[in-house]
Amino acid sequence: MYNLLKGKKGIIFGALDSKSIAWKVAERAHEEGAKFVLTNAPVALRLGTISELAEKTGSQVIPADATSIMDLENLIDQAMKVLGGKIDFVLHSIGMSVNVRRGNHYTHQDYNFTKTGWDVSALSFHRVMSVLYAKNAMKEWGSIVALTYMAAQRVFPDYNDMADNKAYLESVARSFGYFFGRDKKVRVNTISQSPTATTAGSGVKGFDGFIAYAEKMSPLGNATALECADYTISLFSDLTKKVTLQNLFHDGGFSNMGISTAIMDDFMKDYENDNAEEPVEKSKK
Fold first, then answer.
1. Which residues pair with 12 in a beta bridge?
2. Which one in 73, 143, 261, 279 has a CA-CA gap of 20 to 30 Å to 233?
């Protein structure tokens, strides 16, 4: 440990269970000397095991629905009271799609579900920053980070409307990040993480295939949840004070790959098997 966050205070959204990236970020932030509050929607708190994380890290849990301005205002007011001052870092790790949960194909969505998923997964990031901005709750040179995925830029068919949510989320980071940087000297970034076996990710059809494909495509292999937490800690630290408005790919190199030899070898094996000539029966004597 390097005490990278010694004396810093934060809010971590989205820790559900030990598979969550937000859970790993909380553990690493605690190890690096930070104090923080944990938050999630009331329904998520009932489903998860966040109380274990709170006890382990000496943190307080403050329930908040990220689609409610009133809840977010209460969260930030209470967080500053609990922590004794302004906030140094915030992690937004929130995402859900009702269409995915209900098995609705991308070409045939229930648009009420679409709106709900967008509200929770993407617009919530704008709300969080809007309340932080209005309350002047962030310290100068503070850091706000949201987690995203490469489906915002490329087609992953079964990622469904979550791809649209992530594209909106990344745009919010850039647009709001400009005002936060100009007016408050606060940086805002997104981390585009490798496909990671979290509770939320496992709900996406074919997610195991995403993971296996990305592992073979990436020269360094997939980044784990813990490695993502380490990267997030670096963005919370003072070592990255001038990094803002960025969508930072943390994916073992996947985002810059066209094809890998491992994928090509598999393709050629399949191609050769599909095109192999049928054996000719020997004529009977």
1. 38, 91
2. 73
**Facing residues of 11 across strands?**
37, 90
pLDDT tens-place string over residues 147-195: 999 999 999 999 999 999 999 999 999 999 999 999 999 999 999 999 9
Q: Read off the tokens for 253.
A: 């190199």
Q: Are 109 and 56 in contact (CB under 8 A)?
A: no
Residue type for 21, please? I
Domain at 177, CATH number: 3.40.50.720
Contact yes or no for 23/15 (Cβ under 8 A)? yes
Domain-embedded: residue 14: yes
Q: Which of 65, 55, 23 is closest to 200 using CA atoms?
A: 23
Query: Do 57 and 12 meet the contact criterion of CB atoms below 8 Å apart?
Result: no
Number of domains in the chain: 1
Domain that holds residue 147: 9-274
Residues with Cβ < 8 Å from 208, sequence gap 6 or more?
A: none
Count CB-CB contacts under 10 A for residue 49: 14
CB count, 10 Å around CB of 137? 21
Tokens 């937004």, located at residue:
92
